[in-house]
Amino acid sequence: MLRVDCDRCNRHGRYPVAKLIKDHGGDAKLGEWFSKLTKDCPQKKRPGVVGVCDATMPDLRGVWENLKDR
User: Fold this and answer.
1) How does pLDDT run across 19-49, given as a tens digit for each residue?
2) Integer distance in angstroms from the first to the last C-alpha of the chain?
3) Where do the structural domains in the chain lie, given as residue ranges?
4) Whose CA is closest to 20, among 5, 41, 35?
5) Does the pLDDT of residue 70 top 70, yes or no?
6) Residue ranges of the alpha helices (H) in the chain?
7) Is the dihedral of CA 24, 36, 33, 15 positive or negative?
8) If residue 41 lies in a helix (H) or strand (E), which one and from where to where?
9) Percent of the chain residues past pLDDT 70, beyond the cut
10) Are the CB atoms for 18 and 66 separated by under 8 Å?
């Protein structure tokens, strides 16, 4: 499962990774998935940087740090 959470607008979702791969292809980038999963967020269209979409993939926090230590 891949969680997508936004504390700013209190939206939360869980997506089966196997379904994401089936729907978007195995060579799709996480950024592409993320953009599609959050495309209907009303905060994405706000001008400026204050109050814009704050969605994250919390399960992936620290992944880069773990990879670079190897």
Assistant:
1) 988 988 888 888 888 888 888 887 777 776 6
2) 25
3) 2-68
4) 35
5) no
6) 17-24, 30-37, 63-68
7) negative
8) none
9) 84
10) no
